[in-house]
Amino acid sequence: MEDLKQGLSLLFDLQTYDIQIADINKQISLAPGLIEEKNKALGKRKAELNEIKKKYVALISLKKEKETLLESKEKVIEKHSMELNTVKSNDTYNALLLEIEKSKADRSVLEDELLVLMEKVDEESAKVKIAENELQEFEKNTKKDISDIESNIAKLKEEVSALEKVIEEHKLRINKAMLPHYERLKDGRDGRGMALVDGDSCSECGMVLRMQLINQALKGQELVFCDNCSRILFKK
Q1: Calpha distance 222→236 (Å, rounded)
Q2: Coil, strand or helix: which one is 6?
Q3: pLDDT by residue (tens digit) across 69-78?
């Protein structure tokens, strides 16, 4: 009886190690998702910067168009002003004056539009610089976060390896006939192949146990299994 109780106690200790490994492996399995989230956030920030730059480039392009139009109006004014000195008829002279006035009016509108555009260009230029600096800082922090995650994964894997060595040594102390039952039950259950008799219930599934099972677990003369979750019952 004592041998079986001791074996169950050793099995329960083994489960403690298996649960630790399962918990660590869960942390490791979450790491790729965390890294992906970091990269997605970085990609989003880069996309936002590209949109700001597109708006800035569009304003620069529009500014150049307005400047080209303004230059053409200046040339028209200059050309017609020179022509005023050579025309012979009053009608042509008056027509040229009208063209000059119209071009001057257009020039005035373009100059006002250019002033507004120049202010917008300056504003967007400042936004681009701020966004670039923020992205640079965000990217630096993201790379550090990812590096920390990867470093943590490496440490966790080392912990798993160390625990696996402890487990292999611990298994040598356990009755080989008991191990297969436990190994089969712990698979897919985060290393929990055993359950404590907690009052009148199974500590893992919470099922109220039959009194017969409780007594059998208390005696420790045979392996006893929960009727609901099938785990090996252990009474400390």
Answers
A1: 15
A2: helix
A3: 999 999 999 9
Closest CA to 232 of 189, 200, 197: 197
For residue 205, give every residue at least 6 positions away whose Cβ sits within 8 Å of its Cβ, in sequence order, or none.
195, 226, 228, 229, 231
Domain 2-192 sits in CATH 1.10.287.1490: yes
Residue ranges per domain, the chain? 2-192
List Cβ neighbours of 36 (8 Å cut-off, separation of 6 or more). Answer: none
pLDDT at 2: 52
CB 83 within 8 A of CB 99: no
Name the token pair of 26: 């869960």
Which tokens go with 174? Answer: 């356990």
Enter the pTM of the model: 0.77
Output DSSP code: residue 210.
Answer: P
Residue type, 100: I
The Cα 28–Cα 158 span in angstroms is 11
